[in-house]
From TrEMBL:
Coiled coil: none
GO MF terms held by the record: ribonuclease III activity
SMART domains documented for this protein: RIBOc (SM00535)
Name the UniProt record assigns to this protein: Putative ribonuclease III
Any GO BP annotation: RNA processing
Superkingdom classification of source: Eukaryota
Pfam (any one): Ribonucleas_3_3
């Protein structure tokens, strides 16, 4: 008697378990884009508290209204600040001419920014409209810069963004190829 009542309760509850099981499965099945964002975080050595910021950084203006344009401006400024800060910390007598030269090198789209971005394979990550070539330097570069804007916003301060930029950029100078 008791066991048959238990069976009835079990059968009545069965649909609930099924709903739960499919919900769990749904959350576990990552889309290719979120898998790629995971890999990118590993390459950067930074784990986002809000993955939405990295998602936005990897979204070109041609793809949606919510895009990386403003993050990219912040990122470019953080890169310049970080390079100036490091340069002066290393040599308090650094000439303004040398510092300006360093800044113009680091800000170059083709020779610096896009090279660093391609090494991170951002052309394979960034979301663009079907008509847009994701490998052109301006697209790769805006995505690359936007990463550092996104990190600063996620972290609530700019220190980590500057450190991670230097690590990524130096990796390229040393000829270290980052794993895909
Ligand atoms: C996309 O841009 C890259 C870099 O400028 C270029 O090498 C490539 O040929 C372009 N691809 C297409 C399909 O236009």
């Amino acid at each position: 008697m008791a066991s048959s009542r238990a069976l009835v309760i079990f059968i009545l509850l069965l649909p609930l378990f099924e709903v739960q099981a499919t919900t769990i499965l749904h959350f576990k099945s990552f889309s290719p884009f979120s898998t790629v964002l995971e890999t990118l975080q590993n390459q950067l050595g930074y784990s986002f508290k809000n993955i939405g910021f990295l998602r936005r950084a990897m979204t070109h203006a041609s793809f949606s209204e919510e895009n990386n344009k403003a993050f990219s401006i912040l990122g470019a400024n953080l890169i310049q600040t970080s390079v100036s800060f490091r340069s002066l910390s290393k040599d308090i007598d650094v000439s303004s001419k040398y510092l300006n030269h360093q800044l113009s090198q680091i800000s170059n789209v083709e020779s610096s920014c896009a090279v660093d971005g391609m090494r991170l394979a951002l052309h394979k990550v960034v979301r663009v409209s079907p008509k847009t070539n994701s490998s052109v330097p301006s697209v790769v570069c805006s995505a690359f810069r936007a990463i550092f804007g996104a990190i600063a916003i996620d972290d609530g301060k700019s220190d980590a963004a500057g450190d991670i930029f230097c690590a990524v950029h130096r990796g390229g100078e040393l000829g270290n190829v980052l794993p895909l």
